[in-house]
Amino acid sequence: MKVRINGLEVEAREGERILDVANRLGIRIPTLCYLKNVYEGASCRICVVELGNGKLIPACAYEVSDGLTISTDTPRIRESRRVTLELLLSAHRITCQNCPKKGECTLVELCSEYGVEGIPVCAECPLHGEDCFIARSEICLGPITASGCKAECIRDGRTCEGCRGPVTRRDVIEWARGIYIEHGISLEAVLEKLKTYCASSREFDLIREYLVVKEVVEG
Amino acid sequence: MSGKICSGNLIESLQRIQEKQGFLPRDSLIKLSRDTRSPLSRIFGVATFYHQFRLEPPGKVTIAVCMGTACHLRGNAENYEFLRRFLGIRPDRSTSDDGLFSLEKARCFGCCSLAPVVKIGDMLVGKATPRELQKAISRVRESILREEAARGAGGGKT
Amino acid sequence: MMRQEYWTLMDPCCDYCLHSRDNPCAKYVVCRMRGPFCHRSVECREKRQRRIREVLYGSQGVRINIGASSCGLAAGAERVLEAVKDGLRSMGVEAEVSAVGCLGLCFMEPFIEIQSEDGPSPIYGYVSPENVGDILARYFEEGSVDGAFAIRKRTGRFKDEDKVPLLDELDVWRKQVKWVSRNCGVINPESIEEYIVTGGYEGLSRALTMRPEEVIEEIRLAGLRGRGGAGFPTWLKWKICREQPSEEKYVICNADEGDPGAFMNRLLAESDPHRVLEGIIIAGYAIGASQGVIFVRAEKPLMAARLEKAVEDARRWGLLGENILGSGFSFDVRVMRSAGAFVCGEETAMIAAIEGRRAMPRQRPPYPASKGLWDKPTVVNNVETLAHVATIMAHGWREFAKYGTERSKGTKMFCVTGGVKRTGAFEVPIGTTIRTLVYDIAGGPHEGRRIKAVQIGGPSGGCLPERLFDLPIDYESLQEAGAIMGSGGLVVIDDTNCMVDVARYFTSFTLAESCGKCIPCRVGTKALYDRLSAIVEGMSSQEDLQLLEEIGIMMKEAALCALGGTAPNPILSSLRYFRDEYEAHILEKRCPAKVCRKLVSYAINRELCVKCGLCAKSCPVGAIAKTADGYFMIDESRCIRCGTCVITCPRGAVEKR
């Protein structure tokens, strides 16, 4: 039978899944929960692709049929994947330091690929096996800075300066706050350092609210 | 005749255990796992999935508050909060400290036209208000205590 | 086989009748009513006709029906039944007392109906053990139908018959079409005999004389679509399943009705269980299955019990089992009780539950029609659909197709609850407008209230505002408007309800019921719920609305099953039609309906206050204190807005502002 993926007409076998066909052709469809022959439950919905009739379906579970038209990368698909990742992150404690994967995971990769904000530099840092500055009581903005820089400064032996702008997710900041307090770093000092790049931004106010004002209220 | 559908349906086995014992004791689940040669994890997975199964012994009387749409619109959320307070059930538990009542939220009983509905034991209270619930529960509590007292006087503690 | 002490219509009339389970007679069912066919005997004929009359009106020509399905029982039907028996005994009147199902007029439960062969047949509502004696005395001793809700037929024998309206003239009845619910509230659901007398199992007898393909064709001509929600053509599902090469096939009857606000399946199966069973057998015959399962919701035990009784009776008289009515078709059914999970209503999840696993849906296709229970082709139909099947086979597709619209034929039952005068289950032709259903049949809003919307289809459906009430109810037009037909639950929302609170309620429902398999549903419902909670608590910003829409649309597109895919519907539809209410919560921190506790304040109306002090006593934070002049005052700064004082005040003097 013949199917059409991204405008390319290809031969497919009976019973093959869309993901199999795409993999054979070298078309990349991201997956998270799929593990061939072990878990094929189509839970994560990251591998959604668009059919000719406009439906979004998971490529890992959908068997091809003759004449099927499939697109694997459209704005709709990207948007769906992005929101899924956002949701996934909202239910995920981003503490890559304590994770056995040490940040070397598909989730982090996909988040940066789909522009999902909310992952701090701290997730990238352990990828490169760097030591933690905060553990040495140095003021590093890694926990509250958006990732995507591949932790260049840290690999260069410097603390994070927060040049990519802050992460504004409340749960992340609260986690970061815990880390700073645990290592005896003054939150005021952290804010002072953060001012370098984003003193006048809206995000800065937000962070100040979550990091410091909250403390005043509680204290 | 019923063949495969009937044989060893885990859900029905669990329903039988609960019917007999009122809840699913750990030992019974371990025994079921051995008898049916299916992993305990699988049995536990099923037992925790469905609302019907409980892993803690229930109170003497179960009070189920319907959380269907009609009941919600007509004030059962407030009834539920009231019952929690009235029965003195702690936030992390579902049974009152005296072990008499357990409170649970139930899905629609299908008696929406009598909304809001609360089920005390086998008795359905339609068009329930806190005041009426208070009365009904006091009646039930009295009858239980009276029964217990009678039993206590008759043959000592069981 | 257990023999009853008296002769029933189901028993052989004399030694000539040879029907038994081992030696089934093809004409068994029709022969009961119009027979005997195999031998000439005036005596046997009369014996049957006599018994039919007896079943209809009791041996004395009078029969008293008491609605005793779950809703009637909840309203106290059991005590009424005892009171009726006592009353008759004390008056010395002999009449048959029968527990029947539900008429669908739930607002006036418990009801009784006096059916008389030659007198008027009045129906009384709001009956209680206290007033039933008067009703009976008036009817039997004074010859009066005073106080009746309606009468079925006028006879002229009672003096005040004209004062009571005819049932058929009342809006609540006139605008309905009793097609599938014709027996509900009329026959005793536990008696197979009464079902046969009203024409039961004739559809099955007819189907068994046809080829399975012809049965499927008949259903196609009728234009029956699934009544469970999606409206998939029933015949097509059957045809696909029939064409599968497998030896073993199954029929599953979806009786796991979980939508809050929908109870038509319970009503049907409790009031007329044999009709459902007959539909299952016909479906089994059409697709070539040998086994059926009825999967009943855990919270509805009476429904399971009545279906079990029906299965047992049908088996006993050879309507189920080996070689049904001599056709060579063998089929058996068993009833399985769910352990309670809303997601079981999804067909693949239901199959998982029947197989004894956690009820988690799986990705379709493959659809159950090709790969279902134990990977065998399986047809999953809902209770109402199957009851329609039996009725269509008995009366022919033309009768059914008379009703409905071009694309959706026939009738559909709707349960109307919430802020209307007459709550209940009503059967109307598809294409009836919402206005007819809500205002004419259900009687419109309570005094002094205004209806602002209806929520159709439960937690999977959407709300429609009052201005769209002239929309005909059919699968397509509802979908276009952002709601779904669903199983047919229709909750009327009046001006005392807050749309945001309603949306939050439905989301809390799907959040609790999400099986957790896929991310869009598991995390999405939580995210939606958190945003809505922030809105009702006045802790939100305009961006939250955008977020709700963004997540909602993603869930619709990417969730694994229909439960997740439809979960955002209540939010998306209320955002579409009631954005102003959301904005009032967000921008003005105000709940227009005064429902959302954190956004209302309480005050004591001095004109109503009787200075009893109960409010002050009950206040958990001590925010209510006595003022110098003896009245009580609420200290706004300490009030936690729990609402306890409102409940406690005996005079309703605590007002929301």
Describe this structure in words.
The complex is a heterotrimer of chains A (219), B (158) and C (657). Chain A is α+β, with helices and mostly antiparallel strands. Chain A contains 8 helices and 5 strands, in the order ββαβββααααααα. Chain A has 2 domains: 2-73, Ubiquitin-like (UB roll), CATH 3.10.20; 92-218, no CATH class. The longest helix of chain A is centred in the last third of the chain and has 17 residues, at 202-218. Chain A is elongated and about 65 Å long. Chain B is α+β, with helices and mostly antiparallel strands and 158 residues long. Chain B has 2 domains: 3-49; 61-155, Glutaredoxin, CATH 3.40.30.10. Chain B has 7 helices and 4 strands, in the order H-H-H-H-E-H-H-E-E-E-H. Chain B has a 4-stranded mixed beta sheet with strand order 2-1-3-4, covered by helices on one side. The mean pLDDT of chain C is 89. Chain C is 39% helix and 13% strand. Chain C has 657 residues and is an alpha/beta fold. Chain C has 26 helices and 18 strands.
The two chains with the largest interface, and their residue counts, are: B-C, 47 and 63 residues
| Helical proportion of chain C, percent range | 25-40%
Which regions of chain C have little confidence, pLDDT < 50, spanning 5+ residues? none
Rg value of chain A: 21 Å
CATH-wise, what's the superfamily of the largest domain in chain C?
Answer: NADH-ubiquinone oxidoreductase 51kDa subunit
CATH topology of the largest domain in chain C: Rossmann fold
Oligomer: heterotrimer
Summarize the structure.
The complex is a heterotrimer of chains A (219), B (158) and C (657). Chain B is α+β, with helices and mostly antiparallel strands and 158 residues long.
